[in-house]
Amino acid sequence: MTIRVVIADDQAMIREGFSVLLGAQPGIEVVGVAADGLDAVAKAAELRPDVVVMDIRMPGLDGIEATRRITADPALDVRVLVLTTFDLDEYVYDALRAGACGFLLKDASGVQLAEAVRVVAAGDALLAPNVTRRLIEEFTRLGGAPRPPARARLEGLTERETEVLTLIAHGLSNAEIAARLVVAEQTVKTHVGRILTKLGLRDRTQAAVFAYETGLVTPGHTII
To answer: How far is 212 from 163, CA to CA, in rounded Å?
Structure first.
């Protein structure tokens, strides 16, 4: 199955470069490009891609608000992969909260970009790289104390679901969680689905952010 992609960036050279890089990868088709956030929202609605590769800093409507509008549209099933120049860009955390599935640095190779597109298109979160966990931890630390209303939502989870959510926040894949808990991978998938439903979250990335925001996982905490 071909993954259909829209690339949104205000720099023509980057749009063209990424189009060439992704277009050369098997199973990926670039179906459109956008020069700003408004254009990205319009192209997402018009072309219905599987993934939008979204620059954060664009004139007019920025990538954060564009991401929020795209992921909030119930008529769309589009996943957003945000791009940034710096691994601790102050806007990346807001983009994750807005519904982005993960982020990638602009100096990534064509192979890394293609793999990131495949990961988010498959419904997973781009959380494995250490830099992503570091970013979530850093901005959670800056964000202050856990939010009580959000913390209360954790009470609806079972003990096992809470354990799975903690492991998601540490960047473990379903297979890694299954191995750690000595259960079938399908069982983990079921737990993840129930967690997202109970907490009203879109995907694993938002689940990881939620775990940090509520204080379930704290910055610097490691799993044994």
So the answer is: 14
3-state secondary structure of 126: strand
Amino acid identity, position 89: D
Consecutive H or E run containing 108: none
Report the alpha-carbon distance of residue 100 to residue 176 in Å, rounded.
23
Residues facing 80 on adjacent strands: 52
pLDDT of residue 46: 96
Q: Are 124 and 207 in contact (CB under 8 A)?
A: no
State the pTM of this model: 0.71
28-34 sheet: strands from edge to edge:
28-34, 3-8, 51-55, 79-84, 102-105
CA distance 159 to 148: 19
Q: How much of the chain exceeds pLDDT 70, in percent?
A: 81
Dihedral, CA atoms, 25, 46, 35, 6, nearest 10 degrees? -20
Q: For 28-41, what is the mean pLDDT?
A: 95
Q: Report the candidate in 217, 200, 218, 179 with the shortest Cα–Cα distance to residue 99.
A: 200
For β-strands 79-84 and 102-105, DSSP reports them as parallel
- Look up tokens 């689940």; give the residue: 207
Residue 128 pLDDT more than 50? no
CA distance 56 to 94: 10
Phi/psi at 54 (5° precision): -115, 120
